[in-house]
Each structure stands twice: as structure tokens, then as C-alpha cells.
Amino acid sequence: MTRAAASTDLPDDRYLNRELSWLDFNARVLAVAEDPSQPVLERAKFLAIFASNLDEFYMVRVAGLKRREETGLSVRSADGLTPHEQLTRISARNQELTKKLGRTFLDELLPELEANGIRIQRWNMLAEAEQQVLGRYFDDHIFPVLTPLAVDPAHPFPYISGLSLNLAVTVSDPEEGLRRFARVKVPDNVPRLIRVEADREQERATFLPLEELIAAHLDKLFPGMDISDHHIFRVTRNADLEVEEDRDEDLLQAMERELARRRFGPPVRLEVTDTMSDTMLELLLRELEVDEHDVVEVPGLLDLSCLFQLDKLQRPELKNPPFVPATHPAFAEGQTPKSIFATLREGDVLVHHPYDAFSTSVQRFIEQAAADPHVLAIKQTLYRTSGDSPIVNALIDAAEAGKQVVALVELKARFDEQANIKWARTLERAGVHVVYGLVGLKTHCKTALVVRQEGSAIRRYCHLGTGNYNPKTARTYEDLGLLTAAPEVGADLTDLFNVLTGYARHSTYRRILVSPHGIRLGIVERIEAEAARARTGLPCGIRMKVNSLVDEQIIDALYRASLAGVPIRIVVRGICALQAGVAGLSENIEVRSILGRFLEHSRVFHFVGIDERWIGSADMMHRNLDRRIETQVRVVDPKLTEQLDAMMDSALDAQTRCWVLNAKGDWEASPRSGEQVQDHQAEMLRQHGAKVS
């Protein structure tokens, strides 16, 4: 049945706009930064997260809309808006959020930081002794790397790289009086916030933005010239790669070529300080070929992602209490580690990061496999990993020990392409069989398969997760992983890796669902099964936890289940195109969003009536369900399903701090002020026994 045919009984205006929904998500990030109950350095970090999120949104999503608008593609969004209409609404909403960001930074964060001895100052606010110290730092470390670029008939307007911070300077010759434009790029290989060396007391820290230091010494860059004014600006460029995959071309070489092109993408946003002169702005618009609607006036500092630097300050009283992830009790007896393989022969284990330590579970699984002489083969997918990856090192050790090692490295992992190219080459040199997946599809699933000789038999051990094999993000991203020696899962992963590395074709599996063919179909079938139970009066219900909910077929199935009487409760971290609580459409659906110190990243599906629980790597989005290899695995062990239920109970508790999507499409903070509040992540820390100090 086609989507159009299946949806004739539902209203045309049943979807929220995905781009505006994403901006609503980032507004919730900003709301955490506005929360005075949060420690001040945590508030600063959320401002930085907001800023970096917005950069990526413009580089990818806005860039895509602009490309459609410029090429005349009249593809409307699911809610019926043209690319131009979406861009107009995005611009208005972003201006609103940028003003709120500036107010939060200038009026709330800076005073609170200063009250705690942390200052971010302008040059003219520093004491003379501090200026002298920084002046010497400029002469020794900054001045030698600066290259002022003048614009005149002999010097064309310089190329402005994406996300670079720049000073636009107006200079004039005192004899001729002719005014000229010059550009000075703020170097990105030195800290943006410079610590004043004269102020090194433990409880105090004074910082000067690098552009302020450069601006204070422009006379050294333009000796003998009069400097009329200077302004800060920043350009965001289209960074969405478009790799034309050809079966006859090496994908590695194609990716390297496209990465070289990325830095020359067209501008999609121009950020300027709200004090920039009209004359300077007009010049930038003309030379950069930027539309005035793409200009964002920023109060205060441009690019507040620099606030990530403050997290390095040794001020624990101004941050969330540090925690130490606990080793999952299945993998230790007291303080003594247990064999992962022996544990999994006893039964499945569900790990919940960051509460359960990644290093003593998933990482140790791969490391033990690499060192075990009985292990014959290791097969693993790598989407994103860390700079010094113990997982990659273990795969290299295994290959050098003579084991058969296969690594599927996804070269198209957005913004990690360069790192993954490096890992692919390193693994190849070590003798690992490196493959790049299937033409036209990203491999986003998180799977590992270990084949072990045990006596006269072969046993397969598996990991399937919702997050990347990255020890660093495993301490800040909330994710789930299933470790199992179940024969049916081992057979499923064997079939899947044969698809990924060879020419095998499998459409049905035993305990997993695989996109692009199986996940949407499998999820819709289970939603419909719950709806059928509701129509006959049988117990039913759906509980879901995802990062994004955009796919129209999934949403329509949920609408119909709601109309049939199925109670549906959904936790969505980011984008949600579903309208919740609308009479005659979705009054049985509740949608909430949880943000906290950890990034909620796991995907969980609980179909109550048919008693099935699934976890996996896929969000309910077109790209995940149509253009990626993703996996969902069914969790069957009663001890593990009880663990999943406890997690979902906490996330959906009426007292859990969250935002709830109302029938108007707005997000409301819940519980209301004055009501008892529970922190879901604090509850998870308590349940898992992670040590908080």
C-alpha cells in the first residue's frame, strides 16, 4: 500500500516541520543554559553546545534547503512548506534564539561567572599589568602567525573559510586619505580564550578573547596607517558532502576529493556583531555574495562554542559532581574481572552507558577477543571512534596475531570523514580487511562479531549497540548495548556481515531487524499489532525512546494506533514531526523530551501487548530507514527486559524533569514550578551504582 493510499483517512496538516522542530530542540538546550539551578560551568557548556549545534544545522540542513531553492526544486516538506518558506521561518526563529542567547550570556552567565572569580573581559577592562603580560604574549605567539590581507585593485577580496573568525578592518593612508578594507583571520590553532598569566590564583581566572587581543594591536599589523574601525564577522559554508558513488571508483579516493572541496562550499550564514556599521555590512554582503536574510546579528561574543574551554578549569564546585562508571556486575567478582566469554555463556548482558563502564564491558570484549588464542575472527563496524582508539588498537593487535579481522569503516560519517580515512589506512597497513560498506548506503549499525573455537565447536559472541565504539563519548552519551552468545543472534550477524562485505542478500533475520528493508516494516507491523489488540479490547501499549521521530509512515501508524485506543508514550530528544494530544488524531499520544548532563542517545521500542522490546541504532527518519544499514535487536531475557522497563518507567515518570509537547506544537517544561521533580539521569546513576563524588 502506498503512503498516499494509506493516509487518506488522516488530515493533511498532521506533521510538524522538521527544521523548526530541530530549532525547538536547540531552544531546549538553551533553556538548560538559562536554568539558574544548574552549576555555572554547566550552564556555560550548554551555551557552547547550543552554538556548535547551530553551526552544524546551518552547514547541513540550511545548506540543503538553499541548494533546493537555488536549483528550482519545488520539493515541499511533509507539512507543505517550500524551501523558501522554510528558510524564511528558520531565519526569523534563529534571530529570536540568537537574541536570547546573547541576553543569557551577557546578562546572566557573565555576572555569575564573575561572582565566582571567572572573568571574560574586554581589552579596555584589563588592568595595565594584565595588558602588559598579554602584549608580550601577542608579540611572541600571535603576531608571527597573522597575515593581514588588504583589498585593492591589486589584491582581490580574500577567501573566507567556513567557521573562521575574522576582523574586518578599515584603514587609510594618512597622506592620501583613501580608505581601504583589510581582513585579519583570527588563528584557530591557539586557544580562543587567552588566560591572563598574571592571574593564576586557584579561585580566579581572567580570560581575554583572542580577537580582542588582535584588535588592540592592529597598529602593529598596519604600521603607518590610520585605523578607522574594526568589526568581527564569521561565515558558515555548505559542508554537506555529495559523493557520487561509482562502483568502478575507489570510495576512499572519492571521499578525499570531496573533503578537499568542502571548504569551498557556498556561504549559508554571515554572523556579525550587532555593532557592525552599515557600510561594512554592505561590503561583506556584496563581496561574500550573501543575502541580507542570511545575516545574523549577534550581541556579545561570536561563536560561543569557545565556552567549552571553561570546562577545563579546576573548579569542581562549579560543575556537576564527577562520577565513575561502575563495572557491570556480570563482568566482575568483587574487584576481579571475569572473562567476557564465560559470562556470556551463562546468559545475555545489557550494558547501559555511561552508567555501566564502556572500558570494562564493550572495550574489554574486543580486547579479550584480540588476545584470546581461541578466537579465530573478529568482525566489526566502525562509524565514529576516538582519536586514540583502544578498539582500533585491539583490532590491529588481533590482525598482527594472525586472526581474521574485518573492519567496516564508514567513510561518510559526517564531520568524521577525515578521521575515518586515517583509521582505514592504519587498519589496512596492519593487515585488517577493511571494507567501506555498500554503494549508496551508509553503514550506521553498531555491531561486533567474535568467532571462537571451543573444543570441537564454534561459538559466536556478539555486541549490538545504540552508540558508537568510542570510549570518550561513551562517558557522556547515554546508550545501550546487548552482549550475547545466543546462536540466533550470531547467525544473524554472520548473515549481515556477509551482506556488508560480499554479495550476499538477506531480507529476513531471526532476532534482528535490518534497514533499509526491514526496520520500518517491522516497527509498523508491531504498531499495527498493538492497534489490533486495542480494537478487540486486549491489553496494549507502545513506549518508545528515540533521538528523532520524522518518518511519515511510522508517524501515521502511531496516529492510527492512537485512534484505535492504544496508549502511546514517546521520549524524543531532538526532532519530532508528530503532533501529540490533538483531538481526533493523537489524544492518546504523549511526547516528552529529556535533556541533562548526558546526551540521551539510546533507541528503545516496547510493544506492551505483544510483549516485545527492541533496541538499536536507527532513529525514525528517512535517512536511517531508507539510506542506511541499521540494526534493531530484540531483547528477550526477562532480567534484561526488567532493566529496560525500569529505565523507561523512570524516563516516563510524571515527576521526571522534562519538556512535554502540547497540542499546539509547543514544548512546555514539566513538572510545573513548585511540584516535586525527579532527575531521570540521577535516578539511573543511583540504579547502576555509579560513584558520584
From TrEMBL:
Q: Which organism is it from?
A: Saccharopolyspora gregorii
Query: Which residues does the UniProt record annotate as the domain Polyphosphate kinase N-terminal?
Result: 15-120
Protein name, per record: Polyphosphate kinase
Q: In which family does this protein belong, per the annotation? A: Belongs to the polyphosphate kinase 1 (PPK1) family.
Q: Where is the Polyphosphate kinase middle domain?
A: 130-310
Q: Does the keyword Hydrolase apply?
A: no
**Record keywords:** ATP-binding, Kinase, Magnesium, Metal-binding, Nucleotide-binding, Phosphoprotein, Transferase
Described function: Catalyzes the reversible transfer of the terminal phosphate of ATP to form a long-chain polyphosphate (polyP).
Q: Where does Mg(2+) bind?
A: R384, R414
